[in-house]
Write a structure and sequence with these properties.
This protein has 351 residues and is α/β, with parallel strands linked by helices. It folds into two domains: 114 residues, Aspartate Aminotransferase, domain 1; 217 residues, 3-Layer(aba) Sandwich (Aspartate Aminotransferase, domain 2). Helices cover 34% and strands 16% of the residues. The chain contains eleven helices and twelve strands. The strands form two sheets. A seven-stranded mixed β-sheet has the order 2-8-7-6-5-3-4, sandwiched between helices. Strand 9 and strand 10 form a beta hairpin. Helix 3 packs parallel to helix 4. It is globular. 46% of the residues are buried. The mean pLDDT is 96.
Length: 351
């Protein structure tokens, strides 16, 4: 299983991209202007004032103190830092994003996979997590299942002597962020670290910008091995800009729009014979199961459409596909081509 496989490997130039969960082809105009203006500061090292301004913006966004914020070069950096916590046994919820497991195994940490089941909607069962695990990692909403776990179920995973890492890279795509733990203090949920990304909503994968929220002493442990100036000037500016009130309001509107687009796509896909859609879904992507997944994926690619293979996620197999939510005018192309492909495979011998 290639745990380092990601959707960008599927999305080659010229293909209609349903493989990568990034909204749009680039950041909005107002954010571009902020980043362009910051270019004039690239002749100097990122300043302490820039870093503090970014942390203050994040803190205000989530009702936290600036010392409870660690600005990251994307959530992927947060995963790479996890071995600094020196866990003895890490439990990782799957199917889920694979980079945390990669980082931990590479560092020699023992990892136990906790598999959710399609039969009950990939629900989180806190009692399935080993009691001995001193580090627990899960996504909410989970990638690729698009399941949003109840906040109270996630909080049940916290306990003394354990660090609970919740990857909320897609939380801002859920209207109202009802199950987010981003505002939980250490007294609310001990040992909690929440990771947030700006890559998806603001189309910044080439910049790498995100942050961690947690108790100051826990963030200090996480950051102990970082090099000087780990986040550049443009990354700091992006974090600051995207956490200001106007941007938060825009993200909320985007989340509502994404929900409508996802509902349209769910309805359309459920009309296609042979397609099973994993529901309920809360993220800007859907997990599908189709007959003869590799052949279907290849056929879609031949028709100019890229979708994300599912068999690199622990707990899924080659018949699983993940598709990003797109506006109906684009999603209709996927639905129509998938219907044609599956009709071809059904005739004359059946699937």
């Amino acid at each position: 299983m290639d745990l380092r496989h990601h959707g960008d490997a599927e999305a080659e130039p010229g293909l209609l991209d349903f493989a990568v969960n990034v909204r749009g082809a680039g950041p909005p105009g107002w954010l571009r202007e902020r980043l362009v203006a910051a270019v004039d500061r690239l002749g100097s090292y990122p300043s302490a004032a820039d870093e503090l301004a970014a942390r203050r913006a994040v803190a205000a966004r989530h009702g936290r103190s600036p010392d409870e914020v660690l600005v990251l070069a994307g959530v992927a950096e947060g995963f790479a830092l996890l071995p600094a916590l020196r866990p003895r046994l890490a439990a990782v919820l799957h199917p889920g994003f694979t980079e945390p497991e990669v980082a931990l195994r590479t560092a020699g940490v023992e990892v136990r996979r906790v598999l959710t089941a399609a039969a009950d909607g990939h629900r989180l069962h806190p009692d399935d997590v080993p009691t001995a695990a001193d580090l627990v990692v899960l996504g909410n909403p989970t990638n690729p299942t698009s399941v949003l776990h109840p906040a109270e179920a996630v909080r049940r995973l916290a306990r003394p002597g354990r660090v609970l890492v919740v990857d909320e890279a897609f939380a801002d795509a859920v209207p109202g962020e009802p199950e987010s733990l981003a505002s939980d203090s250490d007294s609310d949920t001990p040992g909690l670290v929440v990771l947030r990304s700006l890559t998806k909503t603001w189309a910044l994968p080439g910049l790498r910008a995100g942050y961690a929220l947690g108790a100051p002493e826990l963030l200090e442990r996480l950051a102990a091995a970082r090099p000087p100036w780990p986040v550049g000037t443009l990354g700091l500016e992006a974090v600051r800009a995207c956490c200001e009130p106007a941007a938060v309001a825009e993200a909320a509107a985007v989340a509502t729009e994404l929900t409508a687009h996802r509902d349209w796509l769910v309805h359309a896909l459920r009309e296609v014979p042979g397609v099973h859609v994993q529901l309920p879904a809360a993220g800007p992507y859907l997990l599908l199961r189709v007959p003869d997944g590799p052949a279907v994926r290849d056929a879609l690619r031949g028709r100019g459409i890229a979708v994300r293979r599912g068999d690199t996620f622990p707990g899924l197999d080659a018949d699983h596909l993940r598709v990003a939510v797109r506006p109906p005018e684009l999603a209709r192309v996927l639905v129509d081509e998938l219907s044609r492909v599956l009709a071809r495979y059904r005739a004359p011998t059946g699937l």
